[in-house]
Amino acid sequence: VQGMNLIVGFLLINSNVDKSNTNAFNEIQAFWIFARLMKMPKYNLRTFFLPGMPRLMILSFQMDHIMSRGSNNKYIEVFEHFKRLNVETKTWFATWALTLYSSTMPWNMLQKVWDYIFDEGFNFGIISIAIAILQMSKQRLLLCTDTNELLTLLKSTKIFNDVVIDVNIILKICKENKELGVVTQNDLDRL
Predict the structure, then answer these.
(1) In the predicted model, is pLDDT for residue 35 greater than 70?
(2) According to the model, what pLDDT value does residue 158 have?
(3) What is the DSSP string of the chain?
């Protein structure tokens, strides 16, 4: 199923064959970590991959709500630009969410992003990271003049190549947005 292979691949790359590192895990443990991510209620990753992708649809709806709400919302311009180009959130967001960013984000950044997602909770973490990426790349996104250009930017590593993105800045923006109430777990729970 699309996305699973990249998640498992990242887990395997991070499994350690160096037996001297006691904090590392091996391939068998990587399998069990993935199995727990799929089945544990806390993570319930399998809901991304069920027919109709219910979790992706919920996350996309939540993203739309966060990007479009309020007259002083700093994301409304990006949201309106996406609408003008007929780009639905689920079209680009699926690439990020279904793979937990492993299909587009450089893997040297991904470990910190995954730590954040696991610490904050899946839905909140995935959406917070997306909002931070959009915030950092807003000017570049607004320069896109057609659907293909925008989707190419969002659905590939291009967004990280065209816009110099530092994972620590992403996490800083996530923290600031949380403190400012831009994205809150309560908002997500209500939706």
Answers:
(1) yes
(2) 85
(3) -TTHHHHHHHHHHHS---TT-TT---HHHHHHHHHHHHH-TTT-GGGGTSTT-HHHHHHHHHHHHHHH-STT-TTHHHHHHHHHTT--HHHHHHHHHTTTTTTTS-HHHHHHHHHHHHHH-HHHHHHHHHHHHHHHTHHHHHT--SHHHHHHHHTSTHHHHHTT--HHHHHHHHHHHHHHTSS-HHHHHH-
